[in-house]
Amino acid sequence: MSLEPGRSLWDSGGMTIPIIIDGHAIEAPDGASLIQAWIAAGLPLTENVGCMGQGVCGACRVLVRREGERIAAAALACETRAEAGMQVAFIDHFPARRPHAYDLDAMGDSWSALGQVDAVFPEAKHCRHCGGCDAACPKGIEVQKAVNLAVEGRALAAGALFDHCVMCNLCVAACPEHIAPSHLGQFLRRMANSLTLRPGDLIERIRQIENGSQAIDLDAPGAQP
Amino acid sequence: MRVLTDPALRVAALADHLAVAGDGLRAALRDPAGIIPAIEAAGLRGLGGAGFPAHRKWAAVAAEPGPGKWIIANGNEDEPGTFKDRFLLAETPHQVIEGALVAAVAVRASRVALYVNPREAAGVRALREAAAAWEAHPLLAAVSAVVGEAVELRVVESSGLYIGGEETAAVASVQGGFPFPALKPPFPAQHGVGGAPTLVNNVETLAQAGHILAKGAAWYRGLGIGDAAGVKLFSLSGDVLRPGLHELPMGTSLRALVFEHGGGMLGGRGFKAVFTGGPSNTLLTAADLDVAMDFDSLRARGSRLGTGAMIVVSDGTSILRKTAEYVAFFAASSCGQCPPCKVGTFQVARLLERLEAGAGRPGDLEALRNLAALLPGSGRCGLVDGAATVLASSLATFPEEYARALR
Amino acid sequence: MIGWEQALATPRDAAPPPAFDKESLLRGFHPDHAPGAMVPLRVGVSAGQPCPAALADLLQANALVEDVDIAGRAMREAEVLVVGGGGAGCVAALTAARAGARVLMLTKLRMGDGNTVMAEGGIQAAVGAEDSLQRHYEDTLRAGHFRADRALVAAMVQDGPEAIRWLIQQGMGFDLAEGEDRIGGHLRRKKPGGATAARLLSFRDYTGLELMRVIREAVLLTPGITVLERHPAVELLTDPHGRCAGAVALDLERREILLARAGAVVLATGGAGRLHLSGFPTSNHYGATADGLVLAYRLGARLREVESFQYHPTGIAWPPHLAGTLISEAARAAGGKLFNGLGDRFVDELAPRDVVAAAILREIAEGRAVAREGCAGVLLDTPGLEAAQPGILAKRLVTLSHLAHRAGFDPAREPFLIRPTLHYQNGGIAIDAEGRTAVPGLFCAGEASGGLHGLNRLMGNALLELVAFGRRAGAAAAEAVREDRPRGVGLTHLAEWERGLVAAGLPLDRRAPMVFPAYGNVDLAAMLRKRVAA
Questions:
Q1: Domains of chain C as residue ranges with CATH
Q2: Is B104 in the same domain as B139?
Q3: Contact C162, A209 (CB under 8 A)
Q4: Which residue among B311, C54, C351, C503 is buried most deeply as judged by most CB within 10 Å?
Q5: Closest-CA residue of chain B to C254
Q6: Is B396 a domain residue?
Q7: Which positions in chain B have a beta carbon within 8 angstroms of at least one beta carbon in chain C?
Q8: What 3-state DSSP class applies to B288?
Q9: Which residues of C fall within a CB distance of 8 Å from B359?
C-alpha cells in the first residue's frame, strides 16, 4: 500500500490537472489539495505546512488565481483543491514576533480591562474600513466588524466573532493599519476567559483536592488487572 | 527652455504673476469654446503619469450637465523620485491656479479643489495665500460669469498617502473620506465628487494649459521634439552629477537628460539603468539611452514615461536592493482593499528581503516570477500592477544579480 | 464488501451490537498485533523491547552529524532548551520562563503547527460531582490494559482540575453546559470512549485549536522565551559525563547548522504518525516523525511501550484526498453510531479506541465493509445523529460539518465512510513524575514521553498530559539548570553509539532522525554537509 498522501493519489491512476505553484508548472492529481499537488510533483516541502488538511494550523497560506478570474484570492492550500489553470503563490510567515505586548496576570482589575484594548491595540481605532481583512480571511470571519466592536468596547461580542479563527494571520498581512486583528481577537478572548470564566464544578473539585478529600489510592482494586 | 520653470513665474503676489502671465486665462475667457480644441491641437497629455490626452477628459466633463461640477488639481505627489508638483505648488502657485481656472472655464466647473500633499507644507501655505488672492480678484468673477455659477477655490489637504494620487482616490479624499481607489467605471468625469462630474488633472498638466492658451497650440506643440508635443518636468535623481528638476522638451533623449543636463554619471561610474516614473515601470538600460522620452516612444519600448521621474542607477548600485526598496514602498502604500495587492506585495517584499540578506533559496526566483505574473490585474487601482511590472522587469533585465543572491 | 449505494439503501438497525471477547478481537485485528509488525530492538538501553520495524530502523540508525559538522557554528545559549513547539513544548517553555529561566525553543515547523492544534475532542479532568480523581485514575489504567505507570497516571489525574484552571488563567475558553453561567456554572462534560464518567471538557469540536492559540500567544508575549521556528533538532549535545547539554539544530531558512547550549533540555517533539506504520494513513501533522525518540534513545534514554500505537477509529476512508483525516470522537461521544455494510452495529461506539478500531478492521477483513470508489470502510451515521438531535451538526460539530463540506457532501443526508487512521504513539521516552528521563539534564513531555497511557490512550488524556507534564517538566528543567553549567559540550556520545551499532551488526550509513517524511522531497544531507571547517 502506498503511504504518501501525494503519491497514493498518483497511484490511483486518475486524471491530472495543470496548475502553477510558485512558478512550477505541475500536473496535480485529480482531487488533490494544493499541498498534496506540491508534494506529488516532487517539490521539497519544509514550510507553509502543518496539519496537512484539517485547516486548523493556518500555515499554508496562498494566493490563488483561478483561470478566467482577474482577482486572486487568499486561501489555505490544504483546504483548496487543484483546479485546471490555477496559479498559486505561497505567502510566507514572518518569524514569530509580537508588537502588541500585554500581561493577563497584571490585569487584575476587570474594571480596567476595556481600557486595555486601546492601550494594547491603539491601531484598532484607526481602522480605515477597507474590508481587506474580511476579504483575506479563509474562514469567513467578520474581522472588520469585530475590530470595530472591540473599539466600541464590546469586547465579548468582538471576541466571539473570532471563535473559529485559526490564526493564519492573513488579516494581519492584509491590514494596512497594522491592527493585527487576529491577535486582537486572541487578546479579547483570553481576557474574557481569564477574567470571567469561573466554573463552579471545577472550583469545587479543586477545593476538594486541596482539602485532601480526593486522594488517589494507587493500589485500589480498580487499579488491578 | 523655461516655460513652467520661468523664474518670472516664481512669485508670491498675484499682481506679480499677472504682470508676466494671465494672458492664457484672459484668452480662455474671451473664447471659452476654443479652449478644448486648442488643448487638443497642442497635444497636451496627462502629466501625472497616465499620458491620457487631456482634451478627451476635458471634453467628457464639459459634455456632462452642471451645475456643481468639480475640478481636482492633483498635487498629491508621493511616489519615490518624483518632485515636480511640489515645485509648481510652492514656487508657482498662481501658475497652477491659472491653469485650473482655464480648465474650469473650458468644462464649466464651479468647484476647484487644489488637492495638495500636506507633507509639502510650503506648497500648502503658498497655495492658500494664492487662492485667497484669486478669490479677491476680478478675474475670478469673470470666470464665474462664464461658468454661470460662483467659482470657488478650495485648498484640500490630501491624506499624504501614495494611493491618494489615483484619481478615484483623490475624489474620495476630496469628499472627506479615506482615499480608497474605486473600480472604474464609473469614471470621475461622469461620477466624481459627491456624484458630480469631476475633472481630475495633475497640477503640471493644468499649469501647461495657461501657456497653451496664451501662446497658441502651434507654439506649444513645436516645443517638443519630433512628434512629441510641449515640455515636461523631469525629476532626475540617483547616481548623476546634477540631480534635480529639469524642464526639457518632450521627446528629449535619455542620453541628453543624463549626460548633458544631469552632468553625467557620478564619479565616472558606468550607466546601468533607470527606474522611470513611479517607479513602477519597466527599467530602461544602456540600450535605451537614445530613446525619446515621451509617452509614445517609451511605450513603444515597453516602458512608460510615468511622472517623468528618472531614477538613474550606476553600476555601483544593486538593482536587487533598489527593487526591494521600491516594492517595500508599494507594499506599505497598498490601501488594503484588495488582499492580493496588500498580501502579494508583502510576499514579494519578503522574498526580496531574504535575497538581499543573502539567504535566498533555490525556487525563490521562480516564486518571484510567479508573483509577477499572478498579481497584475488583482487590484482596484494600478498599484499592484506597477509593483509587479518593476519586479518583472528587474528580474528579466538583471537575472545575474538575483542569481548571485541565491545561497 | 458491500457497495456504497447498496449500503445506503440498507436500513440501519439501531439494536445494540453483539458481545465479543475484546482480547481476542485485539489480538486478531489490531495493527499492533499483526504478524511481523514488531521487531525486537537490538541496540541501546531498551534492547529486546518490541518496536515497529519502521521505528526501529530510525532508533537504530547513525547520527546525521558528526563532530566536524558542528565546528565553527554559531552557538545560542539558554538555561532551558525546549525542543518542539506544540502544546507540551509551549507549556514547558512558559512554565520554565515564569520560574525565571532563560528559555530557547526550537521548532521544526512553526510554533503550534503540531498535533495539539488538531485535537478536536477535548481534555479530561474529573470535575463532575459524581466523578472522582480515583475513577479517572482507574479508567486510564484500565483503558491502557494496566501497562501505564501508576505514579505518572496519578500525577496527571491529580493535576487535571488545576490544569483546567491554569488554562483558563492563560485565557482558554471551555464550553459550559446548556444555559449555565460563566461564573459558578457547570462545564459541559462528555463521556469519552472507555471512561466511566462524563469527564471530557471541550471547546466546540476544536478544543486543541483553542488551547494552542492561547498558549502560543502566551509564549510570544512572555519575556525570557526566544523561539527559533523552522529549526529542527538533528542531534543532542552532551557534556563529557553524558549529561544532555543542548542540541544541534538545522536552520531551515538559512540552511545551516546552529548549536544551542543549555543547562537542561526538554524534549517535546511529539509522535510518529508520519512513519505510516503498517501502511496506515495518519491523522498526524506533517512533522510527526519520531525525531525526539531517536535523539533521546541515542543518548541512553529508556523507551517504553513503543510497540503500542493508537489507531483512531474514525479516519476518513473516502474521498481519497482526505484519507486519514480525523473525524473527532466527539461525533461518537455525542451519540453517533457506526454501521457495517449490512446495516448492523458491530461494536459499542464508546468502547476504548483500540477496541473500536480493531472492530472496524474486523468488519473490513471479514467482508462486511462498505466500498466507495475502491475505498473500504464502515459508516459513521451522521444523518442518524442529526435526526436524533436536530441542529447538532451545525452547532456543536462544526469541524465535522466543515470536513464533510470539503469532502463534497452534506453530513445530515449522507454518512461518512471511515476507517482507522494512525493517530497516537501510546508509549515513548520513559519519564518520572517530574518529566525526567534516564539521561541527566534531559526532560520529556507530551506525546514523545511514555508511561501515561499504557497500551491505549483514553480520549482527552493527551491534552491533559501535555498540560500536566509540560508544566512538570518545565518546572523541573528550570530547577535543574541551577545545578551547574555545561562544559566541554559536544557529540561524545556518538562514538559509543556507533560501537553499539557495529556490535549489533547494524549498518552505520542509515541515518536518523528523518525530520521530514520521505515524500516531502527534502534533501537533508545536502543542507547538513555544508561544513565550515574540515
A1: 2-35+311-423 (3.90.700.10), 67-116+216-308+426-480 (3.50.50.60)
A2: yes
A3: yes
A4: B311
A5: B359
A6: yes
A7: 354, 359, 361, 407
A8: helix
A9: 253-254
Give the CATH class of A7-90.
alpha beta
CA of B228: how far to CAs of B56, B218, B221, C275, in Å? Answer: 18, 12, 7, 70
Instruction: Read off the pLDDT band of B266 (50, 70, 90).
Output: very high
| Set of chain B residues whose Cβ sits within 8 Å of the Cβ of A65 | 340, 374, 378
Q: Rounded CA gap, B260 and B267, in Å?
A: 15
Q: How confident is the model at residue C483, as a pLDDT?
A: 62
Dist. CA A60–CA B70, nearest whole Å: 48
pLDDT at site B159: 95
Residue with cell 528629449: B252
The answer, yes or no, to whether the previous bond of B138 is cis (omega within 30 of 0) is no
| Nearest residue in C to A204, CA atom | C127
B342 part of contact set with chain A, CB < 8 Å: yes
CA nearest A95 in B: which residue? B350
Which CATH number characterizes residue B98's domain? 3.40.50.11540
Whether the complex's predicted ipTM surpasses the cut of 0.90: yes
Pairing of strands C50-52, C38-40: antiparallel
State how far the Cα of C489 lies from the Cα of C69, in Å rounded to an integer.
14
User: Is residue B1 in some structural domain?
Assistant: no
User: How many A/B residue pairs have CB atoms within 8 Å?
Assistant: 104
Q: What is the DSSP string of B31-72?
A: -GGGHHHHHHHHT-B-TTTT--BHHHHHHHHHHS--SS-EEE
Which chain B residues are within 8 Å of A91, Cβ to Cβ? 343, 346-347
Query: Of B223, B251, B283, which marks where a domain is finished?
Result: B223
Q: How far is C255 from chain B (nearest CA, A)?
A: 9
* DSSP 8-state class, residue C519: G
Check whether residue B27 and residue B104 sit in a common domain: yes
Nearest residue, CB atoms, C110 vs list A50, A187, A200: A50
Distance CA C346, CA B168 (A): 67
Same domain? B203 vs B181: yes
Provide the grid cell at A206: 479543586
Residue among B336, B368, B374 whose CB faces A130 most closely: B336
Q: pLDDT per residue over C87-102, tens digit each?
A: 999 999 999 999 999 9
Q: Which chains contact C through at least 3 pairs of Cβ atoms less than 8 Å apart?
A: A, B
C-chain residue closest to A167, CA distance? C213
d(CA B165, CA B48): 9
What phi and psi values does residue B380 have, to the nearest 5 degrees? -70, -35
The domains of chain A are located at 7-90, 104-196
Point out the residues of C that are catalytic.
353
Q: Which residue is it, cell 494571520?
A: A169
Residue in chain C closest to A82 (alpha carbons) equals C321
Residues of chain C found within 8 Å of residue B361, distances taken between Cβ atoms: 255
Q: Do residue B363 and residue A23 have CB atoms under 8 angstroms apart?
A: yes
pLDDT in tens, B322-362: 999 999 999 999 999 999 999 999 999 999 999 998 888 88
CA atoms within 13 A on the CB side of C198: 14
B211 membership: H or E segment, kind and range: helix B203-215
Q: What's residue C525's pLDDT?
A: 87
- Dihedral of CA atoms B339, B343, B348, B353 in degrees, nearest 10, equals 160
Please report residues of B whose CB lies closer than 8 A to that of C253.
354, 359
Chain B: closest CA distance from residue C268 (Å) = 29
Closest CA to C117 of A141, A172, A167, A74: A167
For C373, phi and psi rounded to 5 degrees?
45, 45
Tell me which residue has cell 468647484.
B111
**Is the CB of B363 less than 8 angstroms away from the CB of A130?**
no
Q: Which of B228-237, B360-369, C285-294, C525-534 has the lowest mean pLDDT?
A: C525-534
CB atoms A63 and B337 under 8 Å = no
